[in-house]
Amino acid sequence: MTDLTTGSKIQKFFEQTVISRIENWQKQLCDGDLHGFESELSAQLSALHDQVCEVVLPAAAEQVYEGLASVAKAAGCRKITKRLMQVRLSTGSHAEVCSPYVKVPAPGYNQKRHLLSGHWNLIGSASPALYDKVGFCAALCPSYDTGHELLTKFGVQLGLSSVREISNRLAQACHAAGEAELSIQSDESLAGKRVVIALDGGRTRTREYNGKYTEEGYGQYDTAWREPKLFVIDTLDEEGRLDRRTLPIYGCRFDQRHLFSLLGSYLSRLAIKEAKSVQLLGDGAPWIWNNVPALLKSLGVSEDKIIETLDAYHGTEYVHKIVEMMNSRVSEKEKTSLLKRFLNWFWDGQAGKIAQYCRKIFKYSNELADRYMAYLEKHENRMQYADCKEHNLMCGSGIVESGVRRIINLRFKNTSAFWDAQTVEKLYFLRAAVLSKRWDIVIQNLAR
Known about the structure:
The chain has 19 helices and 11 strands. By secondary structure, the protein is an alpha+beta fold. Among the domains are: 184 residues; 70 residues, no CATH class. The protein starts with a helix and ends with a helix.
């Protein structure tokens, strides 16, 4: 098809659907029906989009056919045939094109058999513009159903099952391409910045089939709660506020080893060893403190740049608990006075002093009190909040607790939602990309 013929078809369609309607639209506007005008115009522009794609895509497919086939043959593939292939457009409609198809791939060939699918970066049959819209809405909304409604509202005609399928395929493609490779811009770096890394765990109910069946023949499954572990990488300005010129980065995995591997991948790419300082925030979970400082050192971060800080809220909880459990020999007035004194010591970085004082009060063995006192002594070096305030550093891990709530709980902790663990682990990334405002970076890198 010549460019002239292609242009003529599009011009004719435009005249029939847009130009011919202008007089009626003007009448609508004169009658005060702006909503009706905009709705009809939007529908006609969507139809024009589909018409352009239905004309241009097959013409372009013909032009690149021989070139794509030649590349595949040079790679050792044999029997390149011509096959019809559907491309699902951003409106949800289909365009049909002829694609070179690798019937007999070369040994070790791991590309798509439909060569146009790889050339245009399709996922399944979905175009980049379609999986951009679908993935964004499915990740942003609290459920696939709500995401489907949002897409329908704005003119994307898809079934609910297609929304779910495209989202899952997109998540799988992102996982295969590498989250760190997709999320980071080419010139992005943490060099010279005050970096904050915070970690925490969430909750997701998973689904695992157990081999049993109901009377109706449906497979039964167990629904165990599992703890996905999430990290956030962010930066502080000199005043101690989150630097809004830098976008945060979230990562989430069930397995600790996989989480630290992902964290290391991000930090290595962002030149963490050149950061001005690195503050590590978390609660008292040993998996954080036993692993992350060692990871940072292995990436070249000098020990004097690493500041370990226990979340102050968790620390004060222990102070309150240990005062509350003092026996009746300590009056309520004395408890109030002690709590005030302990909190002053706590914020001055003297958590160990609280433990020493309490050991005099708890003269007899008390397993729970001993645990609280040992906690304060163990983490005293991570409770230097006076120093944090002096150097405009964070005292709490709210940035990661907020991340757990927004990324995991509000989307994947819904009532009666039971997720396949491998699937939901990949979907966390889509949700994180939306909420960190890195979605467009991810899609642009993936579509290349």
